[in-house]
């Protein structure tokens, strides 16, 4: 998060990852693509989600399989950059081009978006 600010606090960000949708959460987008959920254009067609059923499936998968923990840090953007450079964090695309899985994950997400563009808008 170096040089970036967020209007949301950590609680709101984590809650959105667990209860939001793929249009607003890169984590949900990534996990849904890896789980083979169908990404669809919704509303006006600019946003892409996994639809109500897909998002519910993803939320349940996360409740069963994903855990969150945190620690207080005065300059979290510095720690984040350090951890990304030192650890194998394949789901994180930001600042993580060195990861062996980066290009495959980016391609998988791009393919899902392309397929969604070819399908009719879901309501």
Gyration radius (Cα, Å) is 15 Å
Beta-strand segment tally: 2
Unreliable segments of 5+ consecutive residues: none
Distance between the termini: 34 Å
Strand content: under 5%
Average pLDDT value?
A: 89
Strand order of the largest sheet: 1-2
Order of helix and strand elements from N to C terminus: HHEEHHH
Helix residue percentage: 40-55%
Q: What is the SS-derived class?
A: mainly alpha
The largest sheet, given as strand count, sense and whether it forms a barrel, is:
2 strands, antiparallel
Q: Which assembly state applies to the chains in this document?
A: single chain
Name the shape in a single word.
globular
Count of DSSP-assigned helices: 5
What is the compact description of this entry?
With 123 residues, the protein is mainly alpha-helical. It contains five helices and two strands, in the order ααββααα.
Descriptive account of the structure:
The chain is mainly alpha-helical and 123 residues long. The protein has a two-stranded antiparallel ribbon with strand order 1-2. The chain is built from 5 helices and 2 strands, in the order H-H-E-E-H-H-H. The longest helix is centred in the C-terminal third of the chain and has 17 residues, at 102-118.
């Amino acid at each position: 998060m170096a040089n970036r600010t967020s209007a949301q606090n950590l609680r709101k960000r984590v809650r959105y990852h667990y209860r939001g949708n793929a249009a607003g959460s890169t984590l949900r987008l990534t996990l849904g693509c890896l789980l083979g959920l169908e990404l669809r254009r919704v509303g006006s067609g600019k946003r892409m989600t996994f639809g109500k059923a897909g998002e519910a499936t993803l939320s349940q998968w996360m409740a069963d399989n994903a855990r969150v923990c945190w620690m207080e840090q005065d300059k979290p953007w510095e720690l984040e950059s350090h951890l990304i450079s030192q650890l194998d964090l394949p789901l994180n695309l930001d600042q993580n081009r060195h990861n062996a899985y980066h290009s495959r994950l980016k391609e998988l997400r791009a393919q899902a978006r392309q397929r969604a563009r070819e399908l009719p808008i879901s309501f």
